[in-house]
Amino acid sequence: MRKFYQSTYYFWIISKFLMAIAGFISSISILQESNNLREEEKIANYLCLIYSILLVLDNVFSLQGKPNRAIKYITGTISVVIGLALFILMLYMKVISIPLTIAFVILVLLMGLFDLLQVNKRTELQDDDTI
Description:
The protein is mainly α. The chain has helices at 2-7, 9-32, 39-63, 69-92, 98-116.
């Protein structure tokens, strides 16, 4: 599994960066219209904002070659929780595009696993195929 993640390292870095940008823009635009938001919606958007900032910090540290283990565990855990929550919501809510939602859920879950496995950029791939 680590071989897969190491060979696609930059794909995951770019995916996390794009996810952070999307979450940041979404949260900021929703919070600017906070007059009609309930308290739960405000909290969810602030958490999304914090998650987006953590994703950016994780990318910066990883690209510098000094990954922060705590941030990786936090972002990995949050990503897995978000992926599972989206999957459960997909089952109980009316979804416009099920294939697109499933693809997004898989992407978020794999992104979380990437962080939880603490995959680092290597010049050579490791020979072990352990999880």
